[in-house]
User: What shape does this take?
Amino acid sequence: MKIAIAGTGYVGLSLATLLSEKNEVVALDVIPEKVEKINNRISPIGDEYIEKYFKEKKLNLKATLDYKEAFIDADYIIISTPTNYDSEKDYFDTSSVEDIIQKVVSLGINTTMVVKSTIPVGFIKNMKEKYDIDNIMFSPEFLREGKALYDNLYPSRIIVGEKSERASIFAELLREACLKKDVVIKYMDSTEAEAVKLFANSYLALRVAYFNELDTYAELKGLNTKDIVDGVCLDPRIGDFYNNPSFGFGGYCLPKDSKQLKANYKNVPENIISAIVESNRTRKDHIANMVLSKNPKVVGIYRLTMKSGSDNFRSSAIQGIMKRIKEKNVEVIIYEPTLKEDNFFNSRVINDLSEFKEKSDIIIVNRVDDNIKDVNDKIYTRDLYGRD
Assistant: This one.
């Protein structure tokens, strides 16, 4: 089959790589540098498996800036362009997705569009009514930053928002391309599939917030957080996973999806969803207060990325903590080797690690690695397990 993929972020590029072993894939993007890199088999994002496949596999993959080249004659058009929640306007910005829909409609083709971008509940239904089309459905993705292709090769489940022959063919495309046996495939309407995505990510945000609140309690009461977490998580109903305290949840999905779900609850009774959003704000307040209580003159931020294997620091919790510290007129410096600029939001970027360590009175580290352990006396972290 010929499959067009609009958007080459984590979702789009991992799917393009996954499907291009057995199909012809044309990936569309608006950034010339990304298109050039993909065509030269250089991954524009940090993902170990994508980089490995680009080097070792024979992929029928081409990237282009021309949407007509991508869409015409395609059997499926997968939409994986970025969306984001606008807190001020209290709505999900889906303009990039709608732009692709408009392009497909303008071409007068009836190719099935499969939206993989995160969207609000009811979006597909609205698009069908607005453009008088039926050739569109939603299929949520459940990927981790830095492990997107791995999670497509070994998916937890495949969910397709339609009960039809074309939905079955699409699900089979994904199942054939993955390496996991006996993958659960679930079919439902697109509106329910949209809800699955938002509720799943909000639950993960809830779990992060829960263990962070446990850690805040233990830190302020002078208790051993690890002993408490270990004891709590020995209960098999809770489980010893996704339980490592952090500075808060961030990244592409959890902040925006929990806020979007809260917005979707308008006129529906709720307490927990709002609490998830507020808890993340409270956690950042607490971390900043603990750092400021040590009266540092210079606070070093070791990595804007919040976890290993990721090159993304979009909406990272550390940025909120930086803002709080700088409001108290304390100097903040940053070590982030993925940044080429020497300034980030009016904070100096120092990518000579030795100089960074020397100039910092205290170093905030969300996840500790071997590069920073030699200045352990300067480190402030809540990392218990060195993972997640």
